[in-house]
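Protein in question quoted for reference:
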Amino acid sequence: MSALPGLGMTRHVKRKASLAAVFVRHGFGHLLAELGWTGRPGPDEPKPEMSQIRATNLRDALTDAGVTFVKLGQKLSCRPDLLPPDYIRILSTLQEEVPPPEWEEMRAVLVDQLGGAPEEIFAQFDPTPAAAASIGVVYRAVLPGGEPVAVKVQRPGIEPQVKADLAILADLADALEKRIPASRRYQPKALVRQFSESLRAELDFLEEAAKTDQFRDTLADHPCVFVPAPAREYCTPRVLTLEWVDGAPPGEAAALAEPGVDLSRTAHHLSLSLLRQTLESGCFHGDPHQGNVRIMADGRGAFLDFGNVHLIGRQSRRHFQRLLGAFFLERADLIATVLVNAGVLGPGVDIRAFQHDADLLLARSMSRLDNRRDLEKLFREFLVLVNRYEVINFPTEWVALMLSFGLMEGVCRTLDEDFDMFAAGREMIEKDVALKIIDPRRWLAERLLGLREFQDLVTALPGRVERLLTKLEAGDLKIRHEYERAEAFFRPLGRGANRLAAALIAGSLLISGALLLGQAGSGLVRWLGYSLLAAGALWGVGVTWALWRGGRDRD
Protein backbone atom coordinates (compact mmCIF):
# COMPACT_ATOMS: atom_id res chain seq x y z
CA MET A 1 0.00 0.00 0.00
CA SER A 2 2.83 2.39 0.76
CA ALA A 3 4.07 2.09 -2.82
CA LEU A 4 0.88 3.49 -4.28
CA PRO A 5 1.45 7.12 -3.27
CA GLY A 6 4.97 6.90 -4.67
CA LEU A 7 3.67 5.45 -7.90
CA GLY A 8 1.08 8.23 -8.15
CA MET A 9 3.76 10.83 -7.47
CA THR A 10 5.96 9.33 -10.19
CA ARG A 11 3.13 9.60 -12.71
CA HIS A 12 2.44 13.17 -11.59
CA VAL A 13 6.09 14.14 -12.08
CA LYS A 14 6.24 12.45 -15.50
CA ARG A 15 3.04 14.12 -16.66
CA LYS A 16 4.28 17.50 -15.40
CA ALA A 17 7.57 17.02 -17.26
CA SER A 18 5.80 16.07 -20.49
CA LEU A 19 3.52 19.12 -20.23
CA ALA A 20 6.54 21.36 -19.56
CA ALA A 21 8.18 20.00 -22.72
CA VAL A 22 5.05 20.80 -24.73
CA PHE A 23 4.84 24.40 -23.53
CA VAL A 24 8.60 24.99 -23.90
CA ARG A 25 8.34 23.77 -27.50
CA HIS A 26 5.69 26.41 -28.18
CA GLY A 27 7.65 29.34 -26.74
CA PHE A 28 6.72 29.39 -23.06
CA GLY A 29 10.12 28.33 -21.70
CA HIS A 30 10.89 31.58 -19.90
CA LEU A 31 7.46 31.65 -18.27
CA LEU A 32 7.82 28.07 -16.99
CA ALA A 33 11.32 28.83 -15.72
CA GLU A 34 9.98 31.85 -13.85
CA LEU A 35 7.34 29.60 -12.29
CA GLY A 36 9.96 27.06 -11.20
CA TRP A 37 8.74 24.32 -13.53
CA THR A 38 11.94 24.07 -15.57
CA GLY A 39 15.54 25.22 -15.46
CA ARG A 40 16.62 28.41 -17.16
CA PRO A 41 16.09 28.43 -20.95
CA GLY A 42 19.08 28.06 -23.22
CA PRO A 43 21.13 31.12 -24.23
CA ASP A 44 19.80 30.94 -27.79
CA GLU A 45 16.19 31.25 -26.63
CA PRO A 46 15.20 34.95 -26.51
CA LYS A 47 12.87 36.12 -23.78
CA PRO A 48 9.62 37.34 -25.34
CA GLU A 49 7.21 39.73 -23.74
CA MET A 50 3.86 38.13 -22.98
CA SER A 51 2.23 40.43 -25.53
CA GLN A 52 4.59 39.01 -28.17
CA ILE A 53 3.62 35.39 -27.55
CA ARG A 54 1.12 34.77 -30.31
CA ALA A 55 -2.29 33.41 -29.51
CA THR A 56 -1.59 30.63 -32.01
CA ASN A 57 1.31 29.47 -29.82
CA LEU A 58 -1.04 29.12 -26.88
CA ARG A 59 -3.68 27.35 -28.95
CA ASP A 60 -1.14 24.87 -30.37
CA ALA A 61 0.33 24.21 -26.92
CA LEU A 62 -3.10 23.54 -25.43
CA THR A 63 -3.97 21.22 -28.33
CA ASP A 64 -0.78 19.18 -27.86
CA ALA A 65 -1.28 19.06 -24.07
CA GLY A 66 -4.46 16.98 -24.36
CA VAL A 67 -8.15 16.96 -23.55
CA THR A 68 -8.05 18.84 -20.23
CA PHE A 69 -6.10 21.74 -21.70
CA VAL A 70 -8.22 21.88 -24.84
CA LYS A 71 -11.28 22.27 -22.63
CA LEU A 72 -9.48 24.93 -20.60
CA GLY A 73 -8.77 26.82 -23.82
CA GLN A 74 -12.41 26.53 -24.85
CA LYS A 75 -13.48 27.96 -21.50
CA LEU A 76 -10.99 30.83 -21.82
CA SER A 77 -12.28 31.57 -25.33
CA CYS A 78 -15.59 32.48 -23.68
CA ARG A 79 -13.97 35.00 -21.32
CA PRO A 80 -13.47 38.31 -23.16
CA ASP A 81 -13.32 39.87 -19.70
CA LEU A 82 -9.99 38.08 -19.16
CA LEU A 83 -8.21 37.82 -22.53
CA PRO A 84 -7.58 40.21 -25.44
CA PRO A 85 -9.78 39.84 -28.56
CA ASP A 86 -7.02 38.14 -30.62
CA TYR A 87 -6.70 35.38 -28.03
CA ILE A 88 -10.46 34.96 -27.84
CA ARG A 89 -10.70 34.62 -31.62
CA ILE A 90 -7.85 32.08 -31.90
CA LEU A 91 -8.83 29.98 -28.87
CA SER A 92 -12.41 29.76 -30.13
CA THR A 93 -11.06 27.60 -32.98
CA LEU A 94 -10.01 24.85 -30.56
CA GLN A 95 -11.74 21.59 -31.45
CA GLU A 96 -11.99 18.29 -29.60
CA GLU A 97 -10.96 16.13 -32.55
CA VAL A 98 -10.67 12.82 -30.73
CA PRO A 99 -11.56 9.66 -32.67
CA PRO A 100 -13.70 7.13 -30.79
CA PRO A 101 -11.91 4.15 -29.19
CA GLU A 102 -12.36 0.64 -30.49
CA TRP A 103 -15.80 -0.83 -29.77
CA GLU A 104 -14.39 -3.57 -27.55
CA GLU A 105 -12.91 -0.96 -25.18
CA MET A 106 -16.24 0.86 -24.92
CA ARG A 107 -18.14 -2.42 -24.58
CA ALA A 108 -15.97 -3.30 -21.58
CA VAL A 109 -17.03 -0.02 -19.89
CA LEU A 110 -20.71 -0.85 -20.50
CA VAL A 111 -20.29 -4.37 -19.09
CA ASP A 112 -18.49 -3.01 -16.00
CA GLN A 113 -21.06 -0.25 -15.36
CA LEU A 114 -24.33 -2.02 -16.24
CA GLY A 115 -23.40 -5.51 -15.08
CA GLY A 116 -23.99 -7.23 -18.40
CA ALA A 117 -23.39 -7.15 -22.13
CA PRO A 118 -25.17 -4.29 -23.95
CA GLU A 119 -26.79 -6.68 -26.42
CA GLU A 120 -28.39 -8.50 -23.48
CA ILE A 121 -29.46 -5.44 -21.47
CA PHE A 122 -30.92 -3.48 -24.39
CA ALA A 123 -33.44 -4.72 -26.93
CA GLN A 124 -31.18 -3.25 -29.61
CA PHE A 125 -27.75 -1.64 -29.46
CA ASP A 126 -25.90 -0.14 -32.41
CA PRO A 127 -22.10 -0.31 -31.82
CA THR A 128 -21.48 2.38 -34.46
CA PRO A 129 -21.00 5.72 -32.64
CA ALA A 130 -23.70 8.31 -33.28
CA ALA A 131 -21.38 11.04 -31.92
CA ALA A 132 -17.97 11.23 -30.26
CA ALA A 133 -16.49 13.86 -27.95
CA SER A 134 -13.44 14.08 -25.74
CA ILE A 135 -15.13 12.62 -22.65
CA GLY A 136 -17.87 10.37 -23.98
CA VAL A 137 -19.10 8.47 -27.03
CA VAL A 138 -22.83 8.32 -27.86
CA TYR A 139 -24.54 5.21 -29.20
CA ARG A 140 -28.13 4.60 -30.28
CA ALA A 141 -30.08 1.83 -28.53
CA VAL A 142 -33.59 0.64 -27.76
CA LEU A 143 -34.83 -0.20 -24.26
CA PRO A 144 -36.68 -3.49 -23.60
CA GLY A 145 -39.96 -1.56 -23.63
CA GLY A 146 -39.27 -0.31 -27.15
CA GLU A 147 -38.21 3.26 -26.33
CA PRO A 148 -35.26 4.56 -28.41
CA VAL A 149 -32.48 6.06 -26.29
CA ALA A 150 -29.07 7.69 -26.57
CA VAL A 151 -26.39 5.97 -24.48
CA LYS A 152 -23.33 8.09 -23.64
CA VAL A 153 -20.35 6.02 -22.47
CA GLN A 154 -17.29 7.56 -20.84
CA ARG A 155 -13.98 6.90 -22.55
CA PRO A 156 -11.81 4.41 -20.64
CA GLY A 157 -8.95 5.99 -18.71
CA ILE A 158 -10.17 9.55 -19.18
CA GLU A 159 -11.03 10.21 -15.51
CA PRO A 160 -7.58 9.58 -13.94
CA GLN A 161 -5.91 11.56 -16.73
CA VAL A 162 -8.19 14.57 -16.24
CA LYS A 163 -7.79 14.49 -12.45
CA ALA A 164 -4.00 14.37 -12.78
CA ASP A 165 -4.06 17.33 -15.18
CA LEU A 166 -6.32 19.31 -12.84
CA ALA A 167 -3.86 18.77 -9.98
CA ILE A 168 -1.06 20.09 -12.20
CA LEU A 169 -3.19 23.11 -13.18
CA ALA A 170 -3.76 23.83 -9.48
CA ASP A 171 0.02 23.77 -8.90
CA LEU A 172 0.51 26.09 -11.86
CA ALA A 173 -2.11 28.58 -10.61
CA ASP A 174 -0.51 28.59 -7.16
CA ALA A 175 2.93 29.26 -8.67
CA LEU A 176 1.50 32.07 -10.80
CA GLU A 177 0.03 33.90 -7.82
CA LYS A 178 3.19 33.46 -5.72
CA ARG A 179 5.83 34.29 -8.33
CA ILE A 180 4.04 36.74 -10.65
CA PRO A 181 2.08 39.22 -8.49
CA ALA A 182 0.50 40.90 -11.56
CA SER A 183 -1.40 37.67 -12.26
CA ARG A 184 -3.37 37.98 -9.02
CA ARG A 185 -5.68 40.45 -10.70
CA TYR A 186 -7.04 37.52 -12.74
CA GLN A 187 -7.37 35.22 -9.70
CA PRO A 188 -5.82 32.15 -11.39
CA LYS A 189 -6.42 29.89 -8.38
CA ALA A 190 -10.12 30.73 -8.34
CA LEU A 191 -10.37 30.25 -12.11
CA VAL A 192 -8.71 26.85 -11.95
CA ARG A 193 -10.92 25.85 -9.02
CA GLN A 194 -14.08 26.77 -10.95
CA PHE A 195 -12.82 24.99 -14.07
CA SER A 196 -11.95 21.90 -12.03
CA GLU A 197 -15.39 21.77 -10.42
CA SER A 198 -17.04 22.07 -13.83
CA LEU A 199 -14.88 19.40 -15.47
CA ARG A 200 -15.21 16.97 -12.56
CA ALA A 201 -18.98 17.39 -12.77
CA GLU A 202 -18.81 16.45 -16.47
CA LEU A 203 -17.02 13.24 -15.51
CA ASP A 204 -19.87 12.18 -13.20
CA PHE A 205 -22.75 11.10 -15.43
CA LEU A 206 -25.07 10.61 -12.45
CA GLU A 207 -24.66 14.30 -11.68
CA GLU A 208 -25.43 15.10 -15.31
CA ALA A 209 -28.59 12.98 -15.05
CA ALA A 210 -29.64 14.98 -11.97
CA LYS A 211 -28.98 18.25 -13.81
CA THR A 212 -31.05 16.97 -16.72
CA ASP A 213 -33.99 16.23 -14.41
CA GLN A 214 -33.70 19.68 -12.81
CA PHE A 215 -33.52 21.40 -16.19
CA ARG A 216 -36.46 19.31 -17.39
CA ASP A 217 -38.52 20.44 -14.39
CA THR A 218 -37.63 24.07 -15.16
CA LEU A 219 -39.16 23.83 -18.65
CA ALA A 220 -41.79 21.16 -17.95
CA ASP A 221 -44.76 23.31 -18.98
CA HIS A 222 -43.01 25.52 -21.52
CA PRO A 223 -44.56 25.25 -25.00
CA CYS A 224 -42.49 24.29 -28.05
CA VAL A 225 -39.54 23.12 -25.92
CA PHE A 226 -38.51 19.51 -25.25
CA VAL A 227 -35.97 18.17 -22.75
CA PRO A 228 -35.20 14.40 -22.91
CA ALA A 229 -35.70 12.40 -19.73
CA PRO A 230 -32.96 10.18 -18.25
CA ALA A 231 -33.62 6.46 -18.05
CA ARG A 232 -32.42 6.20 -14.45
CA GLU A 233 -32.15 2.39 -14.38
CA TYR A 234 -29.55 2.64 -17.12
CA CYS A 235 -27.49 5.50 -15.67
CA THR A 236 -24.22 5.05 -13.73
CA PRO A 237 -21.25 7.32 -13.01
CA ARG A 238 -19.85 6.45 -16.46
CA VAL A 239 -22.98 5.67 -18.50
CA LEU A 240 -25.79 8.14 -19.22
CA THR A 241 -28.99 7.01 -20.97
CA LEU A 242 -31.47 9.61 -22.25
CA GLU A 243 -34.51 9.65 -24.50
CA TRP A 244 -33.46 9.72 -28.12
CA VAL A 245 -34.21 13.07 -29.81
CA ASP A 246 -35.28 12.86 -33.44
CA GLY A 247 -34.53 16.27 -34.82
CA ALA A 248 -32.35 18.37 -37.08
CA PRO A 249 -29.78 21.05 -36.32
CA PRO A 250 -31.27 24.55 -36.62
CA GLY A 251 -29.62 25.09 -40.00
CA GLU A 252 -31.37 22.06 -41.48
CA ALA A 253 -34.73 22.47 -39.73
CA ALA A 254 -36.54 24.20 -42.61
CA ALA A 255 -36.07 21.20 -44.92
CA LEU A 256 -37.23 18.64 -42.33
CA ALA A 257 -40.10 20.45 -40.64
CA GLU A 258 -43.65 19.25 -41.16
CA PRO A 259 -45.96 21.38 -43.34
CA GLY A 260 -47.40 24.27 -41.37
CA VAL A 261 -44.61 24.40 -38.77
CA ASP A 262 -43.74 28.00 -37.91
CA LEU A 263 -40.02 28.15 -37.14
CA SER A 264 -40.28 31.80 -36.08
CA ARG A 265 -42.63 30.63 -33.31
CA THR A 266 -40.04 28.00 -32.34
CA ALA A 267 -37.36 30.71 -32.15
CA HIS A 268 -39.61 32.89 -29.99
CA HIS A 269 -40.28 30.10 -27.49
CA LEU A 270 -36.62 29.03 -27.35
CA SER A 271 -35.65 32.59 -26.42
CA LEU A 272 -38.42 32.80 -23.82
CA SER A 273 -37.26 29.49 -22.36
CA LEU A 274 -33.79 30.96 -21.74
CA LEU A 275 -35.35 34.04 -20.20
CA ARG A 276 -37.41 31.81 -17.93
CA GLN A 277 -34.29 29.89 -16.92
CA THR A 278 -32.65 33.20 -16.05
CA LEU A 279 -35.47 35.18 -14.46
CA GLU A 280 -37.45 32.49 -12.67
CA SER A 281 -35.62 29.26 -11.91
CA GLY A 282 -31.90 30.06 -11.81
CA CYS A 283 -31.17 26.75 -13.57
CA PHE A 284 -29.86 27.47 -17.07
CA HIS A 285 -28.15 25.77 -20.00
CA GLY A 286 -24.67 27.23 -20.27
CA ASP A 287 -23.91 26.09 -23.82
CA PRO A 288 -27.00 26.30 -26.08
CA HIS A 289 -25.06 26.44 -29.35
CA GLN A 290 -26.20 25.05 -32.69
CA GLY A 291 -24.85 21.56 -31.89
CA ASN A 292 -26.74 21.33 -28.60
CA VAL A 293 -30.16 22.24 -30.00
CA ARG A 294 -32.35 20.13 -32.27
CA ILE A 295 -35.57 21.12 -34.01
CA MET A 296 -38.13 18.33 -34.04
CA ALA A 297 -40.51 17.70 -36.94
CA ASP A 298 -43.46 19.18 -35.03
CA GLY A 299 -41.56 22.46 -34.47
CA ARG A 300 -40.45 21.89 -30.89
CA GLY A 301 -36.91 22.87 -29.96
CA ALA A 302 -35.01 20.22 -28.01
CA PHE A 303 -31.96 20.79 -25.78
CA LEU A 304 -29.04 18.34 -25.67
CA ASP A 305 -25.90 17.89 -23.53
CA PHE A 306 -26.66 18.82 -19.94
CA GLY A 307 -23.13 18.67 -18.56
CA ASN A 308 -23.09 22.47 -18.82
CA VAL A 309 -26.30 23.15 -16.90
CA HIS A 310 -25.53 25.71 -14.19
CA LEU A 311 -27.24 27.14 -11.13
CA ILE A 312 -27.30 30.77 -10.09
CA GLY A 313 -28.18 31.79 -6.53
CA ARG A 314 -31.20 33.91 -5.71
CA GLN A 315 -29.25 37.02 -4.75
CA SER A 316 -26.98 36.89 -7.79
CA ARG A 317 -29.97 36.12 -10.03
CA ARG A 318 -31.85 39.16 -8.70
CA HIS A 319 -28.94 41.44 -9.59
CA PHE A 320 -28.52 39.85 -13.01
CA GLN A 321 -32.24 40.27 -13.73
CA ARG A 322 -31.85 44.00 -13.13
CA LEU A 323 -28.69 44.12 -15.21
CA LEU A 324 -30.44 42.32 -18.06
CA GLY A 325 -33.38 44.70 -17.82
CA ALA A 326 -31.00 47.67 -17.98
CA PHE A 327 -29.54 46.29 -21.22
CA PHE A 328 -32.91 45.57 -22.81
CA LEU A 329 -34.23 49.00 -21.79
CA GLU A 330 -30.96 50.63 -22.97
CA ARG A 331 -30.22 52.31 -19.63
CA ALA A 332 -26.48 52.74 -19.09
CA ASP A 333 -27.12 54.55 -15.81
CA LEU A 334 -28.99 51.51 -14.49
CA ILE A 335 -26.19 49.20 -15.65
CA ALA A 336 -23.70 51.13 -13.50
CA THR A 337 -26.13 51.30 -10.57
CA VAL A 338 -26.77 47.54 -10.62
CA LEU A 339 -23.06 46.76 -10.72
CA VAL A 340 -22.38 49.11 -7.81
CA ASN A 341 -25.23 47.64 -5.74
CA ALA A 342 -24.01 44.12 -6.50
CA GLY A 343 -20.52 45.02 -5.28
CA VAL A 344 -19.00 44.42 -8.72
CA LEU A 345 -17.78 47.97 -9.29
CA GLY A 346 -15.67 48.83 -6.27
CA PRO A 347 -14.26 52.16 -5.06
CA GLY A 348 -11.27 51.87 -7.40
CA VAL A 349 -13.44 52.18 -10.53
CA ASP A 350 -14.33 55.55 -12.05
CA ILE A 351 -18.12 55.11 -12.08
CA ARG A 352 -18.83 58.13 -14.30
CA ALA A 353 -16.29 57.05 -16.90
CA PHE A 354 -17.62 53.50 -16.84
CA GLN A 355 -21.21 54.74 -17.26
CA HIS A 356 -20.14 56.97 -20.14
CA ASP A 357 -18.43 54.08 -21.94
CA ALA A 358 -21.40 51.78 -21.32
CA ASP A 359 -23.69 54.45 -22.78
CA LEU A 360 -21.53 54.65 -25.92
CA LEU A 361 -21.56 50.88 -26.16
CA LEU A 362 -25.37 50.81 -26.10
CA ALA A 363 -25.53 53.67 -28.61
CA ARG A 364 -23.29 51.78 -31.05
CA SER A 365 -25.36 48.63 -30.72
CA MET A 366 -28.53 50.58 -31.58
CA SER A 367 -27.10 52.58 -34.50
CA ARG A 368 -26.88 49.86 -37.15
CA LEU A 369 -28.39 50.85 -40.47
CA ASP A 370 -30.30 47.58 -40.83
CA ASN A 371 -31.67 47.91 -37.27
CA ARG A 372 -30.38 44.39 -36.62
CA ARG A 373 -29.17 44.49 -33.05
CA ASP A 374 -26.56 41.92 -32.10
CA LEU A 375 -26.87 40.88 -28.46
CA GLU A 376 -23.91 38.50 -28.57
CA LYS A 377 -21.62 41.24 -29.86
CA LEU A 378 -22.98 43.70 -27.30
CA PHE A 379 -22.37 41.34 -24.38
CA ARG A 380 -18.88 40.41 -25.59
CA GLU A 381 -17.95 44.08 -25.98
CA PHE A 382 -19.37 44.77 -22.54
CA LEU A 383 -17.15 42.04 -21.05
CA VAL A 384 -14.18 43.64 -22.82
CA LEU A 385 -15.21 46.92 -21.18
CA VAL A 386 -15.31 45.14 -17.81
CA ASN A 387 -11.79 43.88 -18.48
CA ARG A 388 -10.56 47.36 -19.43
CA TYR A 389 -11.78 48.75 -16.11
CA GLU A 390 -10.06 45.86 -14.28
CA VAL A 391 -13.24 44.64 -12.63
CA ILE A 392 -11.85 41.50 -11.01
CA ASN A 393 -14.96 40.25 -9.20
CA PHE A 394 -17.42 40.09 -12.10
CA PRO A 395 -19.46 36.91 -11.31
CA THR A 396 -18.56 33.96 -13.53
CA GLU A 397 -22.20 32.85 -13.68
CA TRP A 398 -23.08 36.24 -15.21
CA VAL A 399 -20.45 35.67 -17.89
CA ALA A 400 -21.94 32.24 -18.61
CA LEU A 401 -25.45 33.71 -18.82
CA MET A 402 -24.38 36.49 -21.19
CA LEU A 403 -22.66 34.01 -23.46
CA SER A 404 -25.74 31.76 -23.32
CA PHE A 405 -27.90 34.63 -24.53
CA GLY A 406 -25.49 35.23 -27.41
CA LEU A 407 -25.51 31.55 -28.41
CA MET A 408 -29.29 31.34 -28.19
CA GLU A 409 -29.62 34.46 -30.31
CA GLY A 410 -27.57 32.73 -33.01
CA VAL A 411 -29.81 29.66 -32.90
CA CYS A 412 -32.98 31.75 -33.10
CA ARG A 413 -31.68 33.82 -36.01
CA THR A 414 -30.88 30.63 -37.89
CA LEU A 415 -34.55 29.71 -37.54
CA ASP A 416 -35.86 33.24 -38.18
CA GLU A 417 -33.55 35.79 -39.79
CA ASP A 418 -35.70 38.65 -38.46
CA PHE A 419 -35.56 37.45 -34.86
CA ASP A 420 -34.83 40.22 -32.32
CA MET A 421 -33.63 39.05 -28.90
CA PHE A 422 -33.89 42.62 -27.62
CA ALA A 423 -37.62 42.72 -28.35
CA ALA A 424 -38.22 39.33 -26.71
CA GLY A 425 -36.18 40.28 -23.66
CA ARG A 426 -37.84 43.67 -23.29
CA GLU A 427 -41.27 42.05 -23.52
CA MET A 428 -40.54 39.62 -20.70
CA ILE A 429 -38.76 42.20 -18.53
CA GLU A 430 -41.68 44.63 -18.83
CA LYS A 431 -44.14 41.82 -18.11
CA ASP A 432 -42.15 40.78 -15.05
CA VAL A 433 -42.03 44.35 -13.75
CA ALA A 434 -45.75 44.86 -14.45
CA LEU A 435 -46.69 41.72 -12.52
CA LYS A 436 -44.74 43.00 -9.53
CA ILE A 437 -46.58 46.33 -9.69
CA ILE A 438 -50.17 45.16 -10.15
CA ASP A 439 -50.04 42.18 -7.80
CA PRO A 440 -50.44 43.75 -4.33
CA ARG A 441 -49.78 40.51 -2.45
CA ARG A 442 -46.50 39.96 -4.24
CA TRP A 443 -45.57 43.65 -3.88
CA LEU A 444 -46.35 43.66 -0.15
CA ALA A 445 -44.48 40.40 0.45
CA GLU A 446 -41.37 41.77 -1.25
CA ARG A 447 -41.56 45.07 0.62
CA LEU A 448 -41.93 43.30 3.97
CA LEU A 449 -39.07 40.97 3.07
CA GLY A 450 -36.97 44.00 2.21
CA LEU A 451 -37.82 45.56 5.56
CA ARG A 452 -36.83 42.36 7.31
CA GLU A 453 -33.51 42.41 5.48
CA PHE A 454 -33.05 46.06 6.47
CA GLN A 455 -33.83 45.23 10.09
CA ASP A 456 -31.31 42.38 9.98
CA LEU A 457 -28.72 44.78 8.58
CA VAL A 458 -29.31 47.29 11.37
CA THR A 459 -29.15 44.53 13.99
CA ALA A 460 -25.90 43.16 12.57
CA LEU A 461 -24.28 46.56 12.01
CA PRO A 462 -22.60 46.93 15.44
CA GLY A 463 -21.13 43.42 15.16
CA ARG A 464 -19.80 44.11 11.68
CA VAL A 465 -18.24 47.36 12.79
CA GLU A 466 -16.70 45.55 15.73
CA ARG A 467 -15.09 42.94 13.46
CA LEU A 468 -13.81 45.60 11.08
CA LEU A 469 -12.27 47.67 13.82
CA THR A 470 -10.79 44.60 15.48
CA LYS A 471 -8.90 43.89 12.26
CA LEU A 472 -7.68 47.48 12.03
CA GLU A 473 -6.74 48.02 15.65
CA ALA A 474 -3.80 45.62 15.45
CA GLY A 475 -1.92 48.21 13.40
CA ASP A 476 -3.36 51.46 14.77
CA LEU A 477 -4.09 52.09 18.47
CA LYS A 478 -5.91 55.29 17.62
CA ILE A 479 -8.57 53.28 15.85
CA ARG A 480 -8.97 51.14 18.95
CA HIS A 481 -9.46 54.27 21.05
CA GLU A 482 -12.16 55.56 18.71
CA TYR A 483 -13.90 52.21 18.78
CA GLU A 484 -14.25 52.37 22.52
CA ARG A 485 -16.67 55.27 21.94
CA ALA A 486 -18.37 53.68 18.94
CA GLU A 487 -21.30 52.28 20.95
CA ALA A 488 -22.41 55.80 21.89
CA PHE A 489 -22.24 56.76 18.23
CA PHE A 490 -24.23 53.80 16.91
CA ARG A 491 -26.97 53.80 19.57
CA PRO A 492 -28.84 56.81 18.10
CA LEU A 493 -28.15 55.47 14.60
CA GLY A 494 -29.87 52.22 15.52
CA ARG A 495 -32.87 54.10 16.95
CA GLY A 496 -33.12 56.16 13.77
CA ALA A 497 -32.94 53.06 11.60
CA ASN A 498 -35.70 51.39 13.61
CA ARG A 499 -37.91 54.46 13.19
CA LEU A 500 -37.21 54.50 9.46
CA ALA A 501 -38.21 50.84 9.24
CA ALA A 502 -41.42 51.60 11.14
CA ALA A 503 -42.20 54.46 8.74
CA LEU A 504 -41.64 52.18 5.76
CA ILE A 505 -44.01 49.59 7.22
CA ALA A 506 -46.67 52.28 7.68
CA GLY A 507 -46.23 53.41 4.08
CA SER A 508 -46.40 49.82 2.82
CA LEU A 509 -49.65 49.21 4.69
CA LEU A 510 -51.22 52.39 3.28
CA ILE A 511 -50.14 51.68 -0.29
CA SER A 512 -51.22 48.02 -0.10
CA GLY A 513 -54.64 49.05 1.22
CA ALA A 514 -55.04 51.58 -1.59
CA LEU A 515 -54.04 48.98 -4.20
CA LEU A 516 -56.57 46.48 -2.86
CA LEU A 517 -59.35 49.07 -2.90
CA GLY A 518 -58.45 49.89 -6.47
CA GLN A 519 -58.91 46.26 -7.53
CA ALA A 520 -62.29 44.97 -8.63
CA GLY A 521 -62.94 42.24 -6.12
CA SER A 522 -65.19 40.74 -3.52
CA GLY A 523 -66.28 42.33 -0.29
CA LEU A 524 -63.52 40.46 1.51
CA VAL A 525 -60.90 42.15 -0.65
CA ARG A 526 -62.36 45.59 0.06
CA TRP A 527 -62.59 44.80 3.79
CA LEU A 528 -58.93 43.81 3.74
CA GLY A 529 -58.07 47.04 1.90
CA TYR A 530 -59.85 49.20 4.50
CA SER A 531 -58.19 47.21 7.29
CA LEU A 532 -54.73 47.81 5.83
CA LEU A 533 -55.48 51.53 5.41
CA ALA A 534 -56.61 51.76 9.03
CA ALA A 535 -53.60 49.81 10.27
CA GLY A 536 -51.27 51.99 8.20
CA ALA A 537 -52.87 55.16 9.55
CA LEU A 538 -52.57 53.98 13.17
CA TRP A 539 -48.99 52.87 12.59
CA GLY A 540 -48.20 56.26 11.03
CA VAL A 541 -49.65 58.08 14.05
CA GLY A 542 -47.47 55.93 16.31
CA VAL A 543 -44.36 56.71 14.28
CA THR A 544 -45.16 60.45 14.33
CA TRP A 545 -45.64 60.33 18.11
CA ALA A 546 -42.31 58.51 18.56
CA LEU A 547 -40.51 61.06 16.42
CA TRP A 548 -42.08 63.96 18.34
CA ARG A 549 -41.14 62.41 21.68
CA GLY A 550 -37.61 61.74 20.44
CA GLY A 551 -37.27 65.39 19.43
CA ARG A 552 -38.50 66.57 22.87
CA ASP A 553 -36.07 64.22 24.64
CA ARG A 554 -33.14 65.69 22.67
CA ASP A 555 -34.31 69.21 23.54
User: Anything to note?
Assistant: The chain has four domains: 3-96+162-198, 98-156+204-244, 249-437, 439-554. Residues 440-473 form the longest helix (34 residues). The chain has 22 helices and ten strands.
